């Protein structure tokens, strides 16, 4: 049974992946064991109230066998753990790590089709060289876009990249003064550093280069490594693409060393932010599929509403009798002034007495 199938009141006995582990202290002063557990369908918090000091502890990325009762607390499911021990089963990435629901090969074909629309020969040659590199291709098809915030799935980085480029193709034609080729190249490279920033063999974690450098710097390194293969690549153009990479978080406090200073950088920043937030909201709805409201999202500091039609699908359906349209007037009626029109022309304001929400004596 997968986490997505857990129901309150059930007892489960399953192998699950540890993504977070801590020894905490309850209000009565007694230690308990907290774990965040995962399989490909989602995550769930587990509480081992029977933990004894000196008992076994677990590391992130370790598979454990858990026997527990499923409970509901404040609208969320959690596990009350009876027993927990290291599992003897071999790690199966397809079982424990979530994957994008999109077809990877179809996504990569879509990526290549969008690159084919680039007209600048320098950018097109560069993008083709990167996407045809076997190592880059494998990592792009495998890496998540984040550890846990948005598109946190195997293949999530490719899904996010293709989505941001697709948004760019819809926005750029609205602004003819924008260079669409630069936007597409910037959208492709903006998060490419995540193939090195994150580790995703047994769990989604930050690598040492990711912790020390971050994906903006790593992305510029990858970009420059491929640019060096083209001696005639314009330096100014390279600088503009690197600016998009470095500024795509938008603000200094969000990790960008520079704020967007070109129209193309502004577009990539906002398309990236939009796609990430829609992914966050979609995941929030998925965590509570039965109700009109999502669970509270700590990062976004709010709950999200699906819409009135989710509570009552008939709310958008107008089943009331439709009025019969009046018959078309004859030619004589069209040319003959109506009595109401004539009366209004003679006494225009007196005819408003029944319409305006105040009496004749009001100021």
UniProtKB/TrEMBL annotation:
GO molecular function, one term: hydrolase activity
InterPro entries to which the protein is assigned, alphabetical: HD/PDEase_dom, HD_domain, HDIG_dom, NA-bd_OB-fold, NA-bd_OB_tRNA, YhaM_exoribonuc/phosphodiest
Bias-annotated ranges (Basic and acidic residues): 333-345
EC number of this enzyme: 3.1.-.-
Alphabetic keyword roster: Hydrolase
Superkingdom: Bacteria
Entry annotated with the keyword Cytoplasm: no
HD/PDEase domain boundaries: 153-286
Segments for region (Disordered): 313-363
Record's protein name: 3'-5' exoribonuclease
Cross-referenced Gene3D superfamilies: Hypothetical protein af1432, Nucleic acid-binding proteins
Keyword hit for Hydrolase: yes
Enzyme class: hydrolase
GO biological process, one term: rRNA 3'-end processing
């Amino acid at each position: 049974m997968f986490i997505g199938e857990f129901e309150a009141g059930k007892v489960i006995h399953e192998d699950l992946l540890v993504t977070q582990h801590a020894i905490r202290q309850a209000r009565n002063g007694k230690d308990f064991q907290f774990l965040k557990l995962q399989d490909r369908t989602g995550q769930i918090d587990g509480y081992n109230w029977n933990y004894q000091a000196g008992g076994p502890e677990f590391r992130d990325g370790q598979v454990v066998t858990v026997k527990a009762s499923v409970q509901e607390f404040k609208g969320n499911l959690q596990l009350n753990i009876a027993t927990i021990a290291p599992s003897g089963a071999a790690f199966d990435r397809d079982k424990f790590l979530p994957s994008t629901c999109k077809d990877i090969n179809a996504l990569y074909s879509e990526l290549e089709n969008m690159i084919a629309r680039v007209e600048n020969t320098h950018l097109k040659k560069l993008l083709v060289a990167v996407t045809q590199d076997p190592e880059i291709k494998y990592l792009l098809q495998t890496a998540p876009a984040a550890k846990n915030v948005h598109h946190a799935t195997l293949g999530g980085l490719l899904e996010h990249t293709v989505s941001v480029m697709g948004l760019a193709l819809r926005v750029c034609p609205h602004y003819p003064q924008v260079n669409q080729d630069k936007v597409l190249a910037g959208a492709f490279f903006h998060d490419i550093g995540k193939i090195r920033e994150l580790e995703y063999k047994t769990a989604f974690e930050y690598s040492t280069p990711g912790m020390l450098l971050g994906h903006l710097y790593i992305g510029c390194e990858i970009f420059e490594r491929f640019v060096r293969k083209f001696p005639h690549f314009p330096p100014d153009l390279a600088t503009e693409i690197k600016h998009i990479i470095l500024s795509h978080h938008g603000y200094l406090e969000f990790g960008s060393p520079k704020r967007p200073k070109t129209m193309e950088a502004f577009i990539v920043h906002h398309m990236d932010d939009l796609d990430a937030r829609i992914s966050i909201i979609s995941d929030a709805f998925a965590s509570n599929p039965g109700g009109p409201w999502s669970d509270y999202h700590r990062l976004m500091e709010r709950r999200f509403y699906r819409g009135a039609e989710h509570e009552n699908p008939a709310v958008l359906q107008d089943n009331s009798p439709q009025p019969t349209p009046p018959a078309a007037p004859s030619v004589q009626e069209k040319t003959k002034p109506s009595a109401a029109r004539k009366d209004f022309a003679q006494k225009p304001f007196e005819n408003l007495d029944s319409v305006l929400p105040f009496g004749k004596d009001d100021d």
